[in-house]
Write a structure and sequence with these properties.
alpha/beta; 16 helices; six-stranded parallel β-sheet; single chain; 17% strand; Rossmann fold; seven-stranded parallel β-sheet
Length: 403
Amino acid sequence: MNPAETETTSRPLRLAIVQRVCTPYRRDLMLKMTAHTGIQIRVFAGDDVPNNKAKNAADFKGLDVVRLRSWFVPVKRNYLVFQRGLLRALRDYRPDVILCEGESNIPGYLKALLYRALGNRVGLMYWTQGGVPGEGRNPGKLRRMWITNAQRRFDHLLAYSSFGKSFTEQYGINGEAITVAVNVGNTERFAERADGLQIDKSAARRHIQLPDRFTILYVGQLDPDKKPDLLLEVARHPSMRHCNFVFAGNGQMLEDLRRQSADLDNVFLPGRINEGLDYYYRAANVLTAPGQAGIVFSEAMAFALPLIVGLSDGTEYDLIEQDQSGRRVTPVTADAFRAVFADLAANPEKTARWGERGREMVSTKYSQVTMAATIVEAVRRVHREKVAHHAGGTARAEDAHGT
């Protein structure tokens, strides 16, 4: 055994995680990953991205985080984020495996590829959403070609959902090189908060000044790709006037939605809820998202809310057992959503049963603890394969030289 192999087996596996920012729910996930024995984690994160809801956690207690100064290059509605000193920081840490944020952090994963190209023996992993339902097979051919070419340079991919894995496989990526770690929030914390809120739905509605009736909750930015206007169309229908529609969030559509709903007494737009969101989850009967959403799904399921969603981020294909923990609604039309809401409003036992099934799912199969364990096992697999590959290469070289 050569000295490098001896060092690798005598110390913890070093994992570097490269992200634009380390959000609160990512911090919680990575803290759970550090609880696994034999692995050491260091997170490399930059400054908060301007005009982006993804921000660094305020507190990194218990987590090894290297903060790197960033500079931003605007590209359409987003930014390329360049983290200063990333190569040097990786060289100082000497990771065994690097896990890179994928499509949203191109400069970060290019530096990881460069780090390996400079002669460093390291396993590389690419964290990908894969694709978005409804995006189609060709969401911009040049962009897709770039993504696929980048993914093929990595040893392993980590997908947000089974949908994301299937989507990625369409472009020739071997499914054996993709691990699905369904993207969820801190389900354990939200379940604790749900259990600690010792009031029923009626009391929660009184607390947030809602009429005591069937309540449909939307949580997230009020932006066009999330389709909150479709829900407003549903709320306006005469058959839905006995239901509350609550839009908890800010965004470019907030004031316009307030103007459009001024004549409706069943629509509530409180803006973003920084404190007291638990009361809204408890007051609701269902959580809905006609368009893009994600982490909010697992949070709502921890409060035993069924999910009624359209085409979202792909995690709905894992988190929703159709007509068991919620409904993926097709086609994504106001009439289709209205039919589901009407059915559940008329069948409270079914609504409760779907919610309890969702709570069970995020308490077991799709908890953040299981997500962390899945990622750690994938990291270990990449490391084992990289060590075996280099060991095989060394043996072949020795044989070729007659040693």
